[in-house]
Amino acid sequence: MTSTRPALSNLALQQVPYSAAWLDALIPMWRASFEAGVGVTDPHPLQEQRQFFLDAVLPQYEVQLALSAGQLVGFIAASAESVNQLYVRVDCQRLGVGSLLLDWAKAQSAGSLWLYTFQQNAVARAFYERHGFEVLEEGFEPTWGLKDLKYGWRRSTGPAAQACP
């Protein structure tokens, strides 16, 4: 059986600011990644998710896209304090896309970030923990009826952050 997963060496990533030209690709990619990660089927029409993105995400967060070979492979919506959305196309996960986007959010942050992820999304939890995030609190997200976790990250300023001579 052959895989349709792109080879890491073939995934030349480009990070660009959000442009409305990508909206029609972003919404279904976001939906597919969410459903795969959380293990639920989103009952809302794609048009509702599109409107949510336009009304609630874009006005409050800076959105960056990850592109490869002219295709959208991920996006992040973040402020200087938090990551609101971070999704990677399902067949491009574990290829550095999320790391590229999260590194951008860390660099433009005020030195710390917080975010929420669903407790049952083991892949996202492992990803954030590999990137230095720690669980701050457990909670419950009423819209989805699922347990969630608030994660936090703080830029290291101690000796461990310095390069070895």
TrEMBL record:
One of its GO terms (molecular function) is acyltransferase activity, transferring groups other than amino-acyl groups. Residues 13-156 form the N-acetyltransferase domain. SUPFAM superfamilies: Acyl-CoA N-acyltransferases (Nat) (SSF55729). Pfam families: Acetyltransf_7 (PF13508). It comes from the Bacteria. This is GNAT family N-acetyltransferase. The lineage of its organism: Bacteria, Pseudomonadati, Pseudomonadota, Betaproteobacteria, Burkholderiales.
